[in-house]
Design goal:
The structure holds two protein chains of two kinds.
Chain A (H helix, E strand, L loop, with lengths): L5 H12 L17 E5 L7 E7 L10 E13 L7 E6 L9 H19 L10 E3 L3 E13 L4 H15 L1 E2 L3 E4 L36 E5 L8 E2 L8 E8 L2 E3 L4 H6 L2 E8 L7 E9 L5 H42 L2
Chain B lengths: L13 H4 E7 L5 E7 L39 E5 L1 H6 L1 H5 L7 E4 H10 L1 H12 L5 E4 L17 H23 L13 E5 L3 H9 L4 E2 L1 H6 L4 H5 L29 H9 L3 E5 L1 E2 L6 E4 L8 E4 L1 H4 L7 E6 L15 H4 L14 H12 L15 E8 L4 E6 L15 E7 L7 E5 L2 H4 L2 E9 L8 E10 L3 H11 L9 H4 L25 E3 L5 E4 L8 E7 L5 E8 L10 H9 L3 E2 L4 E2 L4 H7 L7 E11 L5 E12 L2 E4 H9 L6 H22 L10 E5 L7 E6 L4 H24 L5 E4 L9 H11 L8 H10 L7 H12 L5 E4 L28 H13 L12 H41 L2 E11 L2 E6 L4 E6 L5 E3 L4 E4 L9 E4 L3 E10 L6 E9 L7
Helix pairs in contact in B: 4-5, 15-26, 20-21, 21-25
Classes of the chains: A alpha+beta, B alpha+beta.
Chain lengths: 332, 995
């Protein structure tokens, strides 16, 4: 977003194109700044994470900082299809923008996030409560605290971490099954609560109308089971394209001096081939299919690195917050 | 200055410091709740002189604990598990149960989660002075706080927390008692975990935590005899955790889980309501639900499925084909189940026989009934809330095993509740022989599916049956009237001058006189029933110069003495109303207020709240004003006295004129009210003459006489109430306390209409209160003047009862008072004996700008909650009063029987059964049953039965509803239960003793 002069732009471009390429902070073209990730930062949400890229190690300032929080709410819905994500860049991140421009920017970010994450194919399977009547509505809030470049990578990383961290409270559906027929079968055991998975036995008995009407929380202390789709929430990788080369993790100035950016969204399920969940070209420049093809290949490679690193850190965080904390408590 | 340190906690400790749980709201949303937890090291163990704890901390527990238990000679404290409080609260509360108790926070929370009434009893226990109870906040002490493991159920986690705390306490005791040279460590007291959870005990044993079951613990106590009886039935399972239940056949269906019930009710497939037992037929009950115009009928044991009077139950309704009419037979539990043996029925051995009996009893030919009379039938599938309490019972002497009638062995006996609505209760006791002939208090503990009767335990003895004290107390208990004397905190709210309190001399500085009208010169008098001590209303009337009349009602200014949110106010709110028994008055407010400071006695100055109208001579209200005032009543009349004075032509003083003026206005007011469609209802009211306050024998029963002056007072009170209701409702549309009487649904009258039409050819128009009043006036039998009163009594029974409500809680068009035909009504005139009136006083004072309204009276929820209590108390008070009269009528009858050999009275038939008649003796206000041993010719259509004539050869005699018969009334003592009961037999037209 930084507006820079033509001279600055030319200077940055030429140093990137020089051999070896030079960047202001001395990184290589495909090096990331340090990424910090912390999950479970909003205890009242069902899952949350904070991601910062390029935070200054000394004073804790600078860098791109994004917080994402997922909240589950009970909704009465027809088919339980929709779930929303919402992106809110707080004005402090872009103090120079007018409210209208801020809205536009926010809309841009939200549409990218929504188009990728709300895709029907990656809808989590365990959001149902009562089939056809009630389900969890997943709200993902992403807040940009500060933008020092590479905002989309940060947003998607935070979103993936928050969703990974999200636990769906366990519910048990409860129903009352009206007993038809004569009174002689009064002694027959009446199995009144039927788990969603378990009502197979009575399929032949057409006299009984099964109607699940309500649910309960069997264990009010339990966070619940992880939200389905840990393997599918994609990471985003932004390839900044300067003709003849591309580089990663741009700073604001670098971002302003490239004509074209390619966003690729990849997920790497354990037992399947990598999935390209989407891609976007942003900017005024042009590209062709051949170039994009080769870029995709590179993008997949970089994205896998990000994926693996994120996965490791998320597991680490989980351990830190639960098992290790408990152990520390016991050994105090 | 205490040093304040701030402990900052890193976020990494969230698992320990934050307690998270989910909550499902009533609207079906799920909320995540987070609680911060701060662990500390300075939570005291509560033991005297503990060296390890802060010396300044308050302590409750003695240093050596309790040394009287034989298992723990070195002294001990007990640390009960949650299940002990849930199941054995009576034991813990007993005065004989003296060991020092440590209650853990975990346990408190679990009890609250499971049962709020038990939680409040537990809270009360922790605050009583005489008990050694220490609440230990184990979740906040860093050593005893625990964190839930992965996959641990809440229950297991709590059990672990309790064990952890017990373990900590035992190690802590060694620190508190450092070893003294020469003494071995074994002299240390122990902290004993008491639990009936077998698994928990096993785990505690493994960790070497002293633990014991409740029964074993009580067995070892020095006064175990008294205490063992208090053990509830659930505590009887011994070392083996599962008793062989499988061998016994289930008599009832299991209840559905609570969540299923709620789901079913929400979906409209099940119905929720209060269970009402049928007092004539113990095998039948009804559940009124809004979904049907008629209550759901439950026929037979299986369908009533262990519901007890007052429980909130969930009912499944049967297919419409199976809908039935209620039985028309009297089925008496004692007669039918006479041979059921308490000990034996443990096995349910004579199951077949009982079954046969009952099914025969139930085999009434429902099908013959007209289809309109059919009621929905159903069965209880679950209980939302048990309303079990302690019931007054007698021991059934036949249920004692005869061989050990004098021994102190443990035996199982039946207790028969005094109330006919309750089933017999089985209990195990060692004191059975000594309890015979006494009224005792029994609590129901549980009712298993395999047991025909509920199981309970003995709480305490009230005294010999039929002794006045025992009867009085049992009556109060039965109707849940709080009758304990007022505590010190309450009496401290009274003015310190006590009996000497007077209205201070008039001055602007005195707070009593602020904004008060000085009405001391008005000719005010009070008119009350004879012997009235709590005079809360007084009246005056005078002619104004403009030709109009000024009339005033002056009500004792109770709100001047009873301030909101004080101990006295809370107690009054809980009591709700003063209860009048024949020989005793249970006050709502301390007697100092009721009979002195707030009683508008003659010739003394009293604070009052006055409603003053300006009326035309035709009793049209020109103006009304409300003011706090000071009055000095000039006379206190009894009704009869005032009547005489009014009628005495020789008297012509101011006071008499005032009474006459009031009377003329009252008559016009009444005429207007009647024209508007007010009902003239009747309920049987009798008066008991007591010989003197000491002697217990009531001398006679007579019907209350009504004077013109009764109606005088009544009219003005109605007018005051209506005027005040309008005013407060205007000022506080959301929270004003009002009283309403909903119009009864027309279906309530169906039966009475049908009887009247078929028997007397009379039509009852129930389309409006005015129409009803008119048609009631036409219900006349020239030969029988009492017939009209009888119909009025029966019509009254078809109506709903009036209730208090908060104006913001119901829609505006349901404010009306049906009986009084008034669009709005409240109670303002008896603040000494009704709590609703106190609230209305406060609201009126705020409405006229005298005081600001207390914030609690702005809260709709708060007012609603109070109204609920007050409504219930009001109902209970009426029932208690009636029962007290009934008891004395019984005593009086007994006396008459002894004197006169045989008591016969005229009675009206009000109901016909297949095997009996329901009769009403209007002279005694007594309702009774005449039973026939043989079946008679019963015509349900026409409400008649035909019985064989007493003279052989004569045709059968037909008796129908509304017939006048003569009955012989005897009081006979039930051999088994010692329960005195009125027995009626027919003398004419036939002598039913032969039948």
């Amino acid at each position: 977003m930084a507006s820079i002069s033509k001279a600055e732009k030319a200077y940055i471009q030429s140093s990137l194109l020089s051999d070896p390429p030079l960047r202001a902070d001395g990184r290589g073209l495909i090096d990331f700044r340090t990424i910090a990730l912390e999950s479970g930062i909003a205890p009242i949400a069902n899952g949350s994470a904070r991601v910062s890229i390029g935070k200054n190690a000394q004073d804790g300032g600078g860098g791109t900082e994004v917080v994402a929080a997922a909240k589950l709410e009970v909704e009465s819905v027809g088919d339980g299809e929709d779930w929303t994500s919402c992106n809110d860049s707080s004005p402090t991140a872009y103090p120079l923008l007018s409210p209208n421009a801020l809205d536009d920017l926010q809309h841009d970010m939200t549409s990218v996030l929504n188009a990728t994450l709300s895709h029907p194919t990656i809808r989590p399977k365990n959001l149902g409560i009562l089939p056809g009547r009630k389900s969890w509505l997943l709200n993902l809030d992403v807040i940009v605290f500060s933008d020092a470049g590479n905002i989309f990578d940060a947003i998607f990383m935070a979103a993936r971490a928050a969703l990974w961290d999200t636990k769906v409270p366990r519910t048990k559906s409860v129903q009352y099954r009206a007993k038809k027929g004569d009174r002689s079968d009064a002694t027959q055991a009446m199995d009144m609560d039927v788990d969603e998975t378990a009502h197979v036995g009575s399929a032949l008995d057409t006299r009984q109308t099964i109607q699940v009407t309500d649910f309960e929380l069997p264990d009010y202390w339990d966070e619940g089971e992880p939200l389905d789709g840990r393997q599918t929430w994609p990471v985003c990788l932004t390839l900044n394209l300067l003709p003849t080369l591309h580089f990663l993790d741009s700073t604001l100035q670098e971002e302003a001096s490239v004509p074209l950016k390619l966003l690729v969204f990849y997920s790497f399920p354990l037992d399947a081939t990598p999935m390209l969940r989407g891609m976007r070209l942003l900017g005024t420049g042009v590209s062709d299919l051949v170039q994009v093809k080769s870029l995709l290949k590179d993008g997949e490679k970089y994205a896998r690195n990000v994926w693996v690193a994120l996965e490791g850190k998320l597991k680490d965080e989980d351990l830190r917050r639960n098992k290790k904390a408990r152990e520390r408590f016991l050994n105090r | 200055m205490p040093e304040i340190t701030i402990l900052k906690r890193p976020r990494e400790e969230a698992v320990i410091t934050q307690r998270m749980f989910f909550k499902k709201t009533a609207r079906g949303k799920v909320i995540k709740v987070l609680r911060e937890r701060y662990l500390r090291d300075d939570i005291s163990c509560g033991i005297d002189g503990c060296r390890a704890c802060d010396a300044t901390a308050q302590t409750v527990l003695s240093r050596s604990g309790d040394t009287t238990h034989k298992n723990f000679p070195t002294g001990h404290y007990i640390l009960p598990d949650t299940n002990v409080f849930l199941a054995q609260m009576d034991l813990i509360e007993s005065n004989f149960f003296t060991p020092p108790i440590i209650i853990l926070q975990t346990v408190m929370e679990e009890v609250r989660h499971r049962s709020l009434p038990l939680y409040s009893r537990l809270k009360a226990l922790t605050t009583t002075d005489e008990r050694k109870v220490w609440v230990f906040y184990n979740e906040f002490r860093s050593e005893t706080a625990i964190v839930r493991e992965d996959g641990e159920t809440p229950n297991d986690r709590n059990d672990r927390g309790i064990r952890k705390a017990a373990e900590w306490y035992n190690t802590h005791l060694t620190l508190a008692h450092p070893p003294i040279r020469g003494q071995s460590n074994s002299a240390l007291p122990k902290v004993v975990l008491i639990t009936d959870d077998y698994a928990n005990r096993q785990k505690a044993d493994k960790d070497k935590i002293p633990c014991i079951s409740v029964r074993n613990y009580v067995d070892g106590m020095k006064n175990s005899d008294q205490l063992l009886d208090l053990l509830s039935a659930t505590g009887s399972d011994e070392v083996e955790p599962t008793r062989a239940v499988a061998g016994r056949t289930a008599l009832y269906d299991d209840y559905l889980p609570m969540s299923t019930l709620v789901a079913g009710v929400k979906a409209g497939q099940l119905y929720q309501g209060h269970f009402n037992a049928n007092q004539y037929n113990y095998l039948e009950g009804t559940v009124p639900v809004p979904a049907f115009t008629k209550p759901i009928l439950l026929v037979g044991r299986e369908n009533m499925n262990r519901a007890v009077q007052g429980d909130v139950v969930v009912v499944e309704v049967f297919d419409e084909r199976e809908w039935k009419a209620p039985t028309d037979e009297v089925i008496d539990q004692e007669a039918t189940l006479k041979n059921d043996d308490a000990e034996d029925s443990e096995e349910e051995g004579d199951d077949m026989m009982v079954h046969e009996h009952e099914s025969k009893a139930l085999r009434a030919e429902h099908t013959k009934k007209a289809p309109t009379e059919k009621q929905p039938t159903g069965r209880v599938v679950g209980i939302i809330k048990r309303n079990w309490r302690a019931y007054v019972c007698h021991i059934d002497s036949t249920s004692l095993t005869s061989s050990n009638a004098t021994s102190l062995g443990l035996q199982t006996v039946f207790a028969t509740p005094v109330s006919r609505l309750l089933p017999r209760i089985r209990l195990r006791t060692r004191q059975a022989p000594s309890l015979i002939g006494n009224k005792i208090l029994v609590t129901i503990d549980r009712w298993d599916i395999t047991s025909r009767y509920p199981e309970g335990h003995f709480v305490r003895t009230l005294g010999k049956a039929e002794s006045k004290e025992a009867e009085q107390e049992s009556l109060l208990l039965e109707f849940e009237v709080p009758y304990r004397p007022f505590g010190k905190a309450i009496l401290d709210c009274l003015p310190p001058e006590g009996e000497q309190w007077v209205v201070p001399p008039k001055s602007t500085a005195s707070p009593e006189w602020r904004d008060r009208a000085d009405l001391r010169d008005l000719i005010i008098c009070s008119i009350d029933p004879p012997g009235c001590q709590d005079i809360d209303d007084a009246l005056h009337a005078r002619r104004l110069t403009n030709g109009n009349i000024e009339a005033g009602v002056h009500i004792a200014d109770v709100s001047h003495f009873v301030h909101p949110e004080t101990a006295m106010d809370n107690e009054a709110a809980a009591r709700g109303s003063t209860v009048y028994l024949v020989d005793k008055r249970i006050d709502m407010l301390p007697a100092l207020l009721g009979t002195n400071l707030c009683s508008l006695r003659p010739h003394v100055e009293r604070l009052a709240f006055s409603v003053i109208w300006e009326m035309t001579v035709d009793a049209e209200i020109v103006d009304v004003r409300f003011t706090k005032s000071v009055i000095a009543s000039k006379a206190a009349f009894e009704y009869g006295e005032a009547q005489l004075r009014k009628d005495d032509p020789k008297l012509n003083d101011n006071l008499t004129q005032s009474v006459r003026l009031l009377n003329s206005l009252a008559q016009k007011l009444k005429a207007k009210r009647m024209a508007a469609g007010a009902l003239n209802l009747a309920s049987p009211e009798v008066k008991i003459h007591l010989d003197s306050s000491e002697s217990s024998d009531p001398v006679d029963v007579e019907q209350k006489a009504l004077h013109e002056t009764n109606s005088l007072v009544e009219e003005f009170m109605l007018l005051a109430n209506t005027s005040v209701a309008k005013k407060t409702q205007e000022s506080f549309p959301q929270t004003s306390v009002l009283r309403r009487h909903l119009p009864p649904p027309p279906t309530n009258f169906e039966k009475l209409q049908d009887i009247l039409l078929k028997r007397k050819g009379l039509k009852l128009d129930v389309s409006s209160s005015g129409a009803l009043a008119d048609s009631l006036d036409k219900c006349l039998d020239p030969k029988e003047p009492a017939f009209n009163t009888l119909v009025r009594i029966m019509a009254t029974r078809c109506m709903l009862s009036a209730e208090y409500f908060s104006s913001g809680s119901v829609s505006r068009d349901t404010f009306g008072h049906y009986g009084l035909a008034s669009p709005i009504y409240t109670h303002f005139t008896s603040p000494i004996r009704r709590y609703a009136d106190v609230l209305v006083h406060r609201q009126l004072a705020a409405a006229i700008g005298y005081t600001p309204l207390h914030p609690s009276l702005h809260s709709k929820m708060h007012v609603e909650r109070i109204m609920e209590v007050v409504n219930r108390r009001h109902r209970m008070a009426q029932m208690a009063g009636r029962a007290s009269v009934e008891f004395y009528v019984g005593l009086a009858l007994k006396g008459r029987n002894e004197r006169e050999k045989e008591v016969t009275e005229d009675a009206f038939v009000i109901r016909t059964f297949r095997n009996g008649l329901g009769v009403f003796v209007s002279k005694l206000g007594l309702e009774g049953l005449v039973m026939f041993k043989r079946d008679t010719q019963f015509d349900a259509e026409n409400y008649t039965i035909s019985v064989p004539s007493s003279d052989i050869g004569r045709p059968d005699v037909t008796i129908s509803v509304f017939d006048k018969v003569t009955v012989r009334i005897e009081v006979e003592k039930d051999k088994n239960t010692q329960r005195g009961r009125v027995k009626m037999t027919l003398v004419s037209p036939v002598d039913s003793r032969a039948l």
